[in-house]
Amino acid sequence: MAKLQYLTGFNNEHETEALAGALPMGQFSPQKVKYNLYAEQLSTTAFTASRASNRRSWTYRLRPSVAMSDFAPMALGNIVTAPHTTPCPPNAMRWSPFPFTDEPTDFVNGLTTLAANGSAHTHIGMAIHLYSANANMEKKAFYNADGELLIIPQHGEMLIKTEFGRLSLEPEEIAVIPRGVKFSIDVISKHCRGYVCENYGQPFTLPERGPVGANGYANQRDFHYPVAWFEDNDNPHTLVTKFDGQLYQATLLHSPFDVVAWVGNSAPYKYNLNAFNVINSVSFDHPDPSIFTVLTSPSAHEGTANVDFVIFPERWMVAEHTFRPPYYHRNIMSEFMGLIKGAYDAKEKGFEPGGASLHNCMTPHGPEAAVFNKATQETLTPQRYKDTLAFMLESSLVIKPTPFALNTPCRQTDYINCWKGLKKQFTGQPE
User: Fold this and answer.
1) What is the residue range of the signal peptide feature (predicted)?
2) Among 33, 180, 333, 405, which lies 20 to 30 A Cα-Cα from 318?
3) What residues does each domain of the chain span?
4) pLDDT in tens, 153-185
């Protein structure tokens, strides 16, 4: 794939044009735009949102988006939208890697919902989807009116064409597509597989650093936005949308990727997870996983997330005289985990790349028995966790598995057995 050009800086006001002079200077919507383009604004927050949180972009395009047919309903496939009524047992759950698709399948047709919470109707919560694709979205585009999409590849490279430009994406990177932005995905590898977080709530933003100060975690300069790129293509295209939990399709007599210039702070972006600046303990105790937060979707309650996107990347572990793996805990938050590569330090067996686990609100969890025994007996020398990358989607709402998730052969119904070796070690005497 040819090397693409990007703009940098998270949520900054960007301006970019594919033709010189296409971007109006000093007036976003002049009486007549150069090249006879149409001015169209995309707002992904309310008009009256505060200046700090307001997100909108002006686009200058060959045709306005309303140049299309009416929408008609289409089959949902394996997509589920919250609220859904499947009973949610409080059990710890884990899934083996989900198989690649054999039949020709594009990104949208390859979506399967694993879990969801909240309600897309009230803009609270999220859905967690799996994707498996081996075919391009030929003359087909998609946008989601229910929430923004966080795409987390686990296997395979893809090219995302959007109204704002193009993004290349591969494992160890993520991409975020704002609510309402049209996009199409070309599969570069033979197979592509990964996870999608559909965020119904407030748009993802960078978490506050608190006492960490000005540097650390994910830095603004490492987020990349596409430069303007457009197609002057009059071949018919199909536009698919997810709206109020349903799928609809409409006909366009042209490519929807016809934005010649844009300016604003609401646009697709990507981030390389290897750029995350880990802040880790060098003294004692395993810190809370919140120190690994890349992006957060805030809730109405300060300090409590609608969704946190957290990663567990390669890092040094230098803590002294302490238990280094994640501690046993019960949590008011609910935690969904996926594994991109390698092994996760608390689960050396059974949690594989392409798989997933779920520990809901107050469901106890922690290292398996073998990991506990090893961690309490080994000599504590500086240790480098290499060739590993896991992620967590953490929410203040219960994450409810779908019927597919509860009944798929990939579900490890014996997951609880990994803790059966945890026996009483109490002697009544200090060591």
Assistant:
1) none
2) 333
3) 6-89+101-273, 278-418
4) 999 999 999 999 999 999 999 999 999 999 999
Cβ(346)–Cβ(326) below 8 Å = yes
* C-alpha distance from residue 242 to each of 72, 81, 141, 320, 397 (Å): 12, 10, 12, 50, 22
Complete DSSP assignment for 252-275: ESS-S--EEEEEES---EEEEGGG
* Residue 423: exposure state from Cβ atoms within 10 A (0-12, 13-18, ≥19): exposed
Architecture of the domain delimited by 278-418: Sandwich (2.60)
Query: Architecture of domain 6-89+101-273 in CATH?
Result: Sandwich (2.60)
pLDDT tens digit sequence for 283-305: 887 788 899 999 999 998 888 99
pLDDT at 2: 63
344 is in an annotated binding site: yes
Active site residues: 286
**Residue-level pLDDT at 397:** 96
- Does 385 belong to an annotated binding site? no
